[in-house]
Structure formats: structure tokens, C-alpha cells
Amino acid sequence: MTGSTIARPAFGPSALLTPANAVTVARLAATPVMVLLIARDAVSWVAVAAWFVLSCTDGLDGYLARRQGATRSGAFLDPLADKICVLAAMLTLVAAGRWWWLPVGVIAGRELLQTLWRARLGRRGISVPATRWAKLKTLVQDLAVGGALLPWTAHRHALVQTVLWAAVILTVVTGWQYLMGGRREPLAALAGPPA
Predict the structure, then answer these.
(1) Is the CB of residue 164 less than 8 Å from the CB of residue 103?
(2) CA distances for 187 relative to 74, 177, 178, 181, 184, angstroms
(3) In terms of C-beta density within 10 A (0-12 exposed, 13-18 middle, 19 or more buried), how is residue 175 classed?
(4) pLDDT category, 186, cuts 50, 70, 90?
(5) Please, are residues 74 and 21 in contact by the beta-carbon 8 Å criterion?
(6) pLDDT, tens digit, 9 for 90 and up, residues 122-162
(7) Residue burial 85-120, b: 16+ Cβ < 10 Å; e: rest
(8) Which domains does the chain possess?
(9) Stretch 21-43: mean pLDDT, rounded?
């Protein structure tokens, strides 16, 4: 047979020890360091640089997963790591008196419910992949935290709060989308594959 061959993924769907998962676990391990940096000095170049690196590694584990093969464990761990990193930073900003608790409470509540919903669907073998809107939501959450840490923008309260509330809106909207997507999936599974 001539022509190019299709490259097979390096890891199967059930693999646990993958480079993508290693990056995800490293992000989780680095989160307490990030919390300490924010708690010590919420508005600093060190904190914003650490936040930038931590946020960028989210794209790195996704890139590795696409190149070497997505796994069920990675599909669960990656979004969980996103939520833990973002919520840890946001809750630390609340504790430091930089942010009001209400928008962070809304985001935290939605993320908790969505994680429980995903886990429930996962036990039934149903995966709800991240949508473009969900990726935009994560980006805006990252920008809100970064804006609160960056010395150039941290004291521009209206700007930082606008980005934070935009993150709240996207968080609620994408939460609703996940809920509706998860409710349709079981019906589609019962219907069977299209003829």
C-alpha cells in the first residue's frame, strides 16, 4: 500500500502515565505555591509571572494529549486541574480583600456542580467534551486573575471587575450548555448509532 501512513497515538484511552497527565499533575502541585505568592503579595510581577506560566501549561497538556493520544483520565483531570488552579487563585484574592466573594462564589458553585455532573456522566461512560465557549470561559477567568495580579491593571478596579463579571456570565452560560449536552447524550446513546 502506497501513500502516507496514519500515525497511531502513543497512548491508548485507558493510559494513566502520559506526558499530558504529568503536566496536569505538575500544575496541581504548583497551585499551593501560586496561592502562597498571591497571599504574600497579591499585586506583584512575581505573582503574575507565576500565574502566566501556570495558565500556559493548560495549553501544553492539551497539546500533548492531542499529539500523543487523549485518555479518559486526562479528559477528567485536565478540566479538574483548570478549576482547582483558577478557584484557588480566586479564593485567595477574596481572602486578601481584593475581590468580592459573590462573583467568585457563583463561579465556584458552578464549577463544583459541573465537576459532579461530569463525574456522574463519566460513571455511565458518557464524555462531555469542552466546547469553544468553555475554553473562552477559562481564558476569561485566567485574564481576570491575571488582571488582579498585574501591577499595571490591579488598581483599575472597574476594568478588573468587568473582566471578572464577564467570566461569571460565561461560567453560568457554559454550565447550562454542559447540563443540556449531558442530558441529550444518554438519549442519543439509547437511540444507537445512526443508520
Answers:
(1) yes
(2) 25, 16, 15, 10, 5
(3) buried
(4) very low
(5) yes
(6) 777 666 666 788 889 989 999 999 999 999 999 999 999 99
(7) bbbbbbbbbbeeebbeeebbebbbebbeebeebbee
(8) 19-187 (1.20.120.1760)
(9) 90
